[in-house]
């Protein structure tokens, strides 16, 4: 009942096709891995922090991360299809040396396939905020990324002679390339895989590329929302609907010169700045808004915070992760970094962080802390 | 080439080992759950998706006329793989009552539109392929056929 490698007779399944689909998949995985590292950088407490420019930087890298991951799914499925017979390849039981080599190669492919499928499935579900598993997403996705990229490198090293041989020959050999031959050729399958990949990208890209919104029928978001911007965590989910609208709300500033409590009216009475800045989420969607509010640097000066101090911003939120964020000094002192009070000319929507939220350039959305209650030097907090 | 292969292989083993170490550092419950999902992906593909694809192709080849194979292959690859990427939004598993900005499209409608486009593409492909084949078989009749 179990087939052998030779049971699969389609001439379409061939190393020449596999190598070419694999190359495209390798490009996607490499971009996905590199942009994933950029994103992970924000979560690390390294001496070298991400730059504050370009303003749209994270929007581009994270958009690419999610879209190259989506592009990889059709390519991976076609590639696995093209090598499926290898799963049933004969095992050289009698030759110990060959057996070890065979076993190691199978193990490396198993690790590669397992990690690849895992990364794409988990990433895709996370982008739609679907968490059917128990493990923490970020830690597992990060570990899986290293396993996948490492197994990919091993696989390329093992297969390099085959890849060279495959590229040295035309994709379709003459017999199968004859114009009167019926049915698809390898070229057809390669183009179908690339087309599928492109369609998947266009069907999703509208979540971060505004002019594609209308055609991206499978995008996780239309890009619409209160005041023209989608939300990730609502005030209700964060448990702040009462505290954020309480007349007794104050923003507490803490610094070497003491403590200061400001009402929203106090903040509105300070010098206001307006900047066009994106909200760019780890899930790959992004939207640009016109934020108005107080420059964070001005507030830090009021309580005498030194220019090289990192800042801890704490939210009112009582539920969920990211209730506070550590803002490196370079971001805290950036001219574009605001404690926003208004969005698009209106008072900030409650779901966007009313009464007051952080908005800084080139920074993941989850770290643009909403419903702020306290701003203090990060050193004061035991970590 | 030998040096390049050794270099790639060594870098690959090091990166995989680092990834494995990161996995190992997860809580035991998280680690077991992650391993379960790692294994499940391979199993679902190798024991379910791939065999069903093989059987599906065999069935299609019986039903679909030979001249349609190329167009149907392209259409099937595009529609099926793109549908896989759309599974989370089609199922709306992550939808939350407090956040109407998430999963705020008519995904079934969008998918049907996509399927209709793919179907139209397949039909166009069949017509174009048939004409091209006729021209290839009878190049001397090209002028007459064009008319």
Percent helix of chain A: 40-55%
The stretches of 5 or more residues of chain B where confidence is low (pLDDT under 50) are none
CATH architecture of the largest domain in chain A: Up-down Bundle
One letter per element, helices H and strands E, the order of chain B comes to: HHHHH
Short description:
The complex is a heterodimer of chains A (383) and B (147). Chain A has 383 residues and is an alpha+beta fold.
How are the SSEs placed, and which strands pair?
The complex is a heterodimer of chains A (383) and B (147).
Chain A: H1 15-41, H2 57-83, H3 96-127, H4 137-168, H5 174-177, H6 186-205, H7 235-238, E1 251-255, E2 258-262, H8 264-269, E3 272-280, E4 286-295, H9 296-302, E5 311-315, E6 324-327, H10 329-332, E7 338-343, E8 346-347, E9 357-359, E10 372-377
Parallel strand pairs in A: 1-10
Antiparallel strand pairs in A: 1-2, 3-4, 4-7, 5-6, 5-10, 7-8, 7-9
Chain B: H1 2-24, H2 28-63, H3 69-91, H4 107-137, H5 142-146
Helix pairs in contact in B: 3-4
Question: What report would you give on this structure?
Answer:
Chain A has helices at 15-41, 57-83, 96-127, 137-168, 174-177, 186-205, 235-238, 264-269, 296-302, 329-332; strands at 251-255, 258-262, 272-280, 286-295, 311-315, 324-327, 338-343, 346-347, 357-359, 372-377. By secondary structure, chain A is α+β, with helices and mostly antiparallel strands. In chain A, helix 1 (15-41) runs antiparallel to helix 4 (137-168). Chain A is elongated, with a radius of gyration of 26 Å. Chain A starts with 14 loop residues before the first helix and ends in a 6-residue tail after the last strand. By secondary structure, chain B is mostly helical. Chain B is built from five helices and no strands. In chain B, helix 3 (69-91) packs antiparallel against helix 4. At the A-B interface, helix 2, helix 3, helix 4 and helix 6 of A face helix 1, helix 2, helix 3 and helix 4 of B.
């Amino acid at each position: 009942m179990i087939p052998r490698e030779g049971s699969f007779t389609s001439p379409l399944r061939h190393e020449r096709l596999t190598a070419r689909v694999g190359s495209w998949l390798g490009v996607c995985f490499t971009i996905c891995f590199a942009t994933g590292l950029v994103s992970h950088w924000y979560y690390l407490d390294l001496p070298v922090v991400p730059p504050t420019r370009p303003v749209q930087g994270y929007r581009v890298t994270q958009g690419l991360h999610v879209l190259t991951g989506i592009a990889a799914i059709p390519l991976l499925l076609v590639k696995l299809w093209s090598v499926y017979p290898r799963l049933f390849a004969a095992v050289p039981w009698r030759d110990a040396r060959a057996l070890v080599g065979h076993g190691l190669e199978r193990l490396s492919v198993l690790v590669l396939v397992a990690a690849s499928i895992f990364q794409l499935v988990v990433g895709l579900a996370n982008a739609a905020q679907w968490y059917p598993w128990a493990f923490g997403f970020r830690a597992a996705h990060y570990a899986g990324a290293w396993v996948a990229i490492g197994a990919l490198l091993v696989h390329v090293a093992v297969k390099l002679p085959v890849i060279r041989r495959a590229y040295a020959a035309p994709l379709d050999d003459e017999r199968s390339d004859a114009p009167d031959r019926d049915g698809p050729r390898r070229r057809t399958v390669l183009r179908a895989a690339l087309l599928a990949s492109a369609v998947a990208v266009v069907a999703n890209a509208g979540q971060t590329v505004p002019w594609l919104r209308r055609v991206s029928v499978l995008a996780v978001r239309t890009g619409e929302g209160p005041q023209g911007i989608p939300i990730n965590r609502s005030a209700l989910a964060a448990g702040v609907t009462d505290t954020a609208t309480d007349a007794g709300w104050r923003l507490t500033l803490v610094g070497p010169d003491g403590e200061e409590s400001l009402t929203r009216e106090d903040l509105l009475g300070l010098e206001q700045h307006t900047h066009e800045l994106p909200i760019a989420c780890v899930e790959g969607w992004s939207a640009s808004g016109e934020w108005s509010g107080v420059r964070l640097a001005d507030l830090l000066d009021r309580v005498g915070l030194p220019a090289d101090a990192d800042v801890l911003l704490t939210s009112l939120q009582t539920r969920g992760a990211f209730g506070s964020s550590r803002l490196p000094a370079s971001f805290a002192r950036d001219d574009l970094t605001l404690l926003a009070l208004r969005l698009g000319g209106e008072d900030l929507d409650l779901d966007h962080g009313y009464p007051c939220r952080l908005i800084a350039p080139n920074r993941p959305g989850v770290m643009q802390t909403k419903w702020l209650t306290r701003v203090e030097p990060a050193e004061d907090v035991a970590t | 080439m030998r040096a390049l292969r050794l270099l790639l292989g060594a870098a690959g083993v090091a990166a995989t080992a680092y990834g494995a170490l990161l996995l190992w550092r997860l809580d035991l419950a998280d680690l077991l759950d992650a391993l379960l999902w790692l294994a499940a992906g391979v199993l679902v593909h190798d024991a379910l998706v791939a065999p069903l694809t093989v059987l599906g192709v065999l069935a299609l080849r019986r039903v679909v006329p030979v001249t349609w194979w190329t167009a149907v292959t392209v259409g099937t690859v595009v529609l099926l793989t793109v549908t896989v990427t759309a599974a989370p939004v089609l199922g709306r598993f992550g939808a939350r009552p407090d956040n109407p900005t998430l999963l705020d499209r008519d995904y079934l409608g969008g998918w049907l539109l996509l399927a209709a486009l793919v179907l139209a593409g397949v039909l166009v492909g069949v017509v174009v392929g048939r004409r091209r084949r006729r021209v290839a078989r009878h190049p001397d009749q090209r002028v007459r056929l064009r008319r």
